[in-house]
Amino acid sequence: MKKTFLLLSFVFVLIACESAEKSLTAPESITTIYLIRHAEKDRSDKENKNPELTEEGKKRAERWAEVLGLSKVDAVYSTNYQRTLQTAAPTATRNGLEIQTYEPNNLDIDSLTTLHEGERILIVGHSNTTPMLVNRALGEERFEWIEDTVNGNLFILTITPSTRGIQVLSIE
Fold first, then answer.
1. Whole-angstrom distance, CA of residue 30 vs CA of residue 109
2. How many CB atoms lie within 10 A of CB 72?
3. Which of 13, 57, 112, 164 has the fewest beta carbons closer than 10 A?
4. What are the pLDDT digits (tens) for 115-132?
5. What is d(CA 147, CA 135) in angstroms, rounded to the nearest whole number?
6. Are 166 and 133 a contacting pair, CB within 8 Å?
7. Which domains are seen in the chain, by residue range?
8. CB count, 10 Å around CB of 53?
9. pTM to 2 decimal places
């Protein structure tokens, strides 16, 4: 009887210690991915497939740096076009980062999340690629292409090992 009591006491102590250890473990890390479309591009030359930003677009890129500057950004990704690189540049400069280029069809959000676990990432894309990346990350077709005149959408993707969430803001 005494042995049974001691054995049960020992088991309860182990269970209590295990529960206490679980409650002391760090919370799940949150990776935050900010996805934006490039700022306003120069449309004066219809033949130019790689235009730069307009003056308004350059101002918007600076505003993105201010908005995203409210929290540190750990990595900046952009497609290899002048308009996306110019949109990403102020945020990269503000955070002392180099812009890393990517191909939208080859960007693996899961690998990116693993590489930048617990960090904040900016991805600058296009009216078709930005929603495509968000949909791929969520595993559902939730967002359609962004209208060509809309340059102020901010998709905030939050990823933990057990959840994925999205918030969309319009910042003019």
1. 14
2. 10
3. 13
4. 999 999 999 999 999 999
5. 16
6. no
7. 27-170 (3.40.50.1240)
8. 23
9. 0.84
